[in-house]
Amino acid sequence: ASLTDSLGLGTSLGTSLGLGGTSGLGSAAAAGTAALTGAQAAGSVHTGGSATGTDVVAVAKKYIGVPYVWGGTNPATGMDCSGFTQRVFKDLGVELPRVVSDQMRQGTPVASLAEAKPGDLLVSFGGNHISIYLGNGKAIDAPVPGKTVQIRDAWEQQSNLTSIRRIVPAGAAS
Fold it and tell me: I need a surface site. Which of 9, 34, 50, 107 has the fewest CB within 10 A?
């Protein structure tokens, strides 16, 4: 069964939420569970030096208002959730893979939302969505078609988080 089926969302609503193509989540969900339990980080991150979570937050905020576009990676035309996170880190000289299922294996695991710091990546729905934690219960993301990059309440709860990853050293809440 797909994630949208298990959530009772139905195909059209799931697709409109950016959850299309969610069947076969077993390996992504398993990887996310391993990440939350402190399993060894897979993959490698090439950093540009001294970027911190505070820097991630500052760069992310400059993209507020950019439209969500499925598969988008260009702020001039629109970005999807993982295109947005990839761009933010690229601006800081940190290379991340393109898609959530690969981004969620980068950096180091963070055990819980209570331990998340500004600049951490919040991965939810089995690896089908990613946002950047801002601290103080807020996150920034490219949410769904028809919306723009925006700051929202960090709606991800521990129960629907697949993984939390720290890519650069923590920053102060913003």
Answer: 50
Cα angle 89, 146, 74 (rounded to 5 degrees) comes to 35
Beta strand ranges found along the chain (DSSP E): 73-74, 78-79, 108-109, 121-124, 129-135, 138-141, 150-153, 161-166
Q: Residue 115 corresponds to which tokens in the numbers above? A: 């331990």
Nearest CA-CA partner of 76 in 85, 92, 86, 87: 87
How does pLDDT run across 35-74, given as a tens digit for each residue? 333 333 333 444 556 899 999 999 999 999 999 999 999 9
Question: Which DSSP symbol is given to 32?
Answer: H
Strands 78-79 and 108-109: unpaired
Average pLDDT score over residue span 137-157: 90
How many angstroms separate the CA atoms of 101 and 129, rounded? 9
In this prediction the pTM is 0.72
Which residue do the tokens 């991965």 mark? 123
